[in-house]
Specification:
Layout (H helix, E strand, L loop, with lengths): L1 E2 L4 E2 L6 H13 L46 H7 L43 H7 L21 E5 L3 E2 L2 H13 L4 E4 L4 E6 L3 H10 L9 E2 L9 H4 L2 E2 L2 H7 L6 E6 L15 E5 L4 H10 L3 E5 L11 H7 L6 E5 L11 E5 L2 E6 L7 E15 L9 E10 L9 H17 L6 E5 L5 H8 L4 E4 L1 H12 L6 E11 L5 E10 L2 E8 L2 E4 L8 H11 L11 H8 L4 E4 L2 H11 L11 H8 L12 E4 L2 E4 L3 H6 L6 H27 L3 E5 L6 H13 L4 E3 L10 H12 L1
Parallel strand pairs: 5-12, 7-10, 9-13, 15-17, 17-18, 19-26, 21-25, 26-27
Antiparallel strand pairs: 1-2, 3-4, 3-12, 5-6, 6-11, 7-11, 8-9, 9-10, 13-14, 15-16, 19-20, 20-21, 22-23, 24-25
Length: about 700
């Protein structure tokens, strides 16, 4: 057996029936994390091998590279971790061929220890015996290590530095027990941890970060036969969600929280959902076993930036947040934040692709002629590299608003091309010239393919569900640059990648100082009221703002459903000022309790575009005789009915098509499930992304699809 650059060459000899049985077993009896595919199978001359042998990797072979993701700690290693008689008892970096980090420690391929960040840890005699023994499950486990030869922990606070791993771990647990905030280095970056049941600790974390309202994820100790006993005490989880939590990727899963619960009410203020996950590294297991209850685990970063991976960065940039740090000396080759998923309409939908899932590789139905880099959008950025019929999607990078974010953005772009030995010959980017990703692309010497924001959103469906039937894709989100120069976000696009026709939308409205609209929902509420001749008064509004709006100064026109959600939050008095993007829409969803069938908004034809009139929503949203839940129910139900009516009218005009839902608005579980139910009742086939985010994190894949058609 020999590692090639992405493939494995296996030479076997024996009777024909035995060879056939062996070939089937490779696929059918593969370990749980392995997904082997037999690329070629042919007869060769006998070499009369005397024994099983793994030959040195062939780094000169043709590259056909597949980079593995990071894996959770397998049950066998967990048993050893908790076995006092095992030499790796309580060793925080235990792993084998079936578990442990991969993507975050690979520096180049072939995947051999010398090509990983573990190269700086020479194997001790005991680990070397395991590594070289074909009968051992650590045979060629590249991250193999033990307490004698492998990485170690270090605890640092304002008073001391402790290099003994066992004592460092004990000090970290003590810090959590006393309400402190600690930064803990994991597989793809650092987490900020604190006691999830300690109100003051959570308040301190929010105040220092600062992160006043955005929900925090919670990691629970494994407990019970299926590891989920403790989670069930705090959240209502379905069988589908339970299975997702225990997937090898160990993602954060958004679930319904219970009320009351012992968890701090400051973890997800105003919301009835909770992001929960299980420990996936041995260090997490040891920490949580000793601590005995849930901890808040949020990315150690400056809000919106990529997660931090280096000790010096954490101690320099986050010293105002942390009381202590638990470091280790295994370098992280590249950041990988935790993946976040939500069950919507019975299927897992990624909200963020990261550790355990990335890099994602998808097969293109049509080969792309030139190796192409797609650099995504500005928010929730991720990038993709495509060549031939292959596409590789990076982990979530973050918002490109800071020098650090741009540095990581460039690192990921370089990493993808270097790891897969593919040099991009053209770049696809969002058509918005103000996006940092667009500006970066323009600075290169490569040919540029600008792609309109919502065309990219729509094209992602063709990637996951290729077929010959035209699409009608509803692309609902915050805002994105449209072909007419306005800010779209409530569109229905008919056609295929490379050939989209806008056939439905919402009446446009002008938002005062629209650049601030995502963080100031009152601006969207004011725009709707002023445009219909109604008065609107918010604490933040002043006469200067309204005067500028009346003169059409700094007032961008938009059709975005995301801005309608912001307006709904402000008009129903849920929120005037948001501390994070999407807070208003999340509160509107959280206050929705019961969706009933209702009438759609009025729809008129404007230059062959079916435009929905949002104005009837205003009276209900401002009706103080109705509860907030009743207003939110009506808002959701009316939008759903309107989408279905636009689909029905479009079918009457254009014939049959498949319906797609793409854009950040469809992260809303209540709205999306109601829409799908109503559409299916009208005999529509409905599709939504399962492998890539429907939000801006999936834009890079749609840009590739558009680039293919543009060749």
């Amino acid at each position: 057996m020999q590692n090639l650059k992405g493939d494995v060459l296996v030479h076997i000899e024996g009777e024909p029936r035995a060879l056939e049985k062996f070939t089937l077993a490779i696929v059918q009896q593969a370990p749980s994390i392995a997904k082997p595919i037999i690329i070629d199978n042919k007869s060769v001359a006998s070499q009369s091998p005397a024994r099983f042998e793994i030959r040195d990797s062939d780094a000169s072979s043709q590259a056909h590279i597949h980079t593995p993701t990071d894996y959770f700690t397998c049950p066998e290693c967990l048993r050893e971790l908790n076995d006092p008689d095992n030499r790796r008892y309580q060793y925080p970096f235990i792993n084998c061929t079936q578990c442990g980090p991969r993507f975050t420690l690979i520096e180049k391929l072939p995947y051999d220890r010398v090509n990983t960040t573990m190269a700086v840890f020479p194997l001790c005699a005991a680990c070397a015996r395991e590594y070289n023994n074909p009968l051992d499950r650590r045979f060629h486990a590249e991250p193999i290590a033990c307490a004698e030869c492998g990485p170690r922990l270090q605890f640092i606070d304002h008073e001391q530095s402790i290099d003994d791993s066992h004592l460092a771990l004990h000090k970290a647990v003590t810090a959590l027990q006393t309400g402190q905030i600690i930064a803990v280095k994991g597989i793809g970056g650092y987490h900020l941890l604190c006691d999830a049941e300690n109100d003051q600790a959570v308040i301190n974390l929010r105040t220092r970060k600062p992160r006043p309202d955005k929900p925090l994820a919670v990691i629970f100790p494994s407990s019970g036969a299926d590891e989920l006993e403790l989670i069930r005490q705090h959240a209502n989880i379905s069988d589908t969600e339970a299975a997702l939590l225990r997937e090898p990727s160990r993602p954060i899963v958004v679930v319904d929280s219970k009320d009351p619960t012992r968890l701090s009410r400051h973890i997800a203020p105003g919301l009835n959902q909770l992001g929960v996950f299980l420990p996936y590294s041995p260090l997490h297991h040891l920490l949580l076993q000793s601590f005995g209850r849930a901890v808040v685990a949020t990315s150690a970063n400056v809000s919106g930036e990529p997660v931090l991976t280096e000790q010096q960065q954490v101690q320099k940039r986050l010293s105002h947040i942390t009381d202590a740090c638990l470091h280790h000396n295994r370098p992280i080759a590249r950041p990988a934040d935790d993946s976040v998923l939500r069950i919507i309409a019975g299927h897992a939908r990624p909200l963020r692709i990261g550790r355990g899932l990335a890099p994602v590789e998808l097969t293109l139905a049509t080969a792309i002629n030139k190796p192409t880099l797609a650099v995504g959008g500005h928010m929730k950025n991720s990038v993709a590299l495509a060549w031939g019929k292959r596409m590789v999607i990076s982990p979530h990078i973050g918002d490109l608003d800071s020098p650090h974010s741009l540095k990581v953005f460039e690192q990921v772009i370089d990493d993808l091309q270097r790891l897969y030995e593919i040099k991009a010959e053209q770049i696809a980017c969002d058509a918005h010239r103000g996006y940092a990703s667009h500006r970066w692309a323009r600075q290169t010497d490569l040919p540029l393919i600008p792609v309109f924001h919502h065309h990219a959103h729509a094209a992602t469906l063709e990637l996951e569900y290729p077929h010959d039937t035209p699409w009608l894709v509803f692309t609902w989100d915050g805002v994105g640059y449209g072909p007419d120069g306005s800010l779209w976000g409530g569109e229905a696009l008919l056609g295929r990648p490379g050939n989209w026709q806008r056939v439905a939308s919402f009446n446009p409205f002008r938002v005062p100082a629209g650049d601030h609209a995502a963080r100031q929902p009152w601006r969207s509420a004011a725009a709707l009221c002023w445009q219909t001749g109604l008065d609107y008064s918010a604490p933040q509004e002043n006469e200067l703002v309204k005067h500028a709006w009346e003169k059409d100064i700094n007032s961008a026109s938009t059709s975005a459903v995301g801005r309608l959600f912001d307006a709904a939050a402000a008009l129903s008095r849920l929120l005037d000022e948001a501390s994070f993007e999407g807070q208003g829409p999340m509160l509107v969803e959280a206050n929705t309790t019961d969706l009933q069938r209702t009438e759609p908004l009025p729809i008129t034809d404007s230059d062959n575009v079916l435009q929905a009139d949002w104005s009837p929503l205003l009276s209900v949203l401002q009706d103080n005789k109705l509860t907030i839940s009743q207003r939110c129910n009506h808002f959701h139900a009316t939008l759903a009915a309107t989408l279905v009516e636009q689909a029905v009218l479009s079918r009457q005009r254009y014939g049959t098509f498949q319906v797609g839902l793409s854009g950040g608005v469809f992260q809303n579980k209540r709205l999306t499930e109601h829409i799908i139910d109503l559409l299916e009742q009208k005999d529509f086939k409905v599709f939504m992304n399962r492998q890539i985010p429907c939000n801006d994190g999936g834009l890079c894949t749609g840009q590739i699809m558009e680039a293919i058609q543009g060749e």
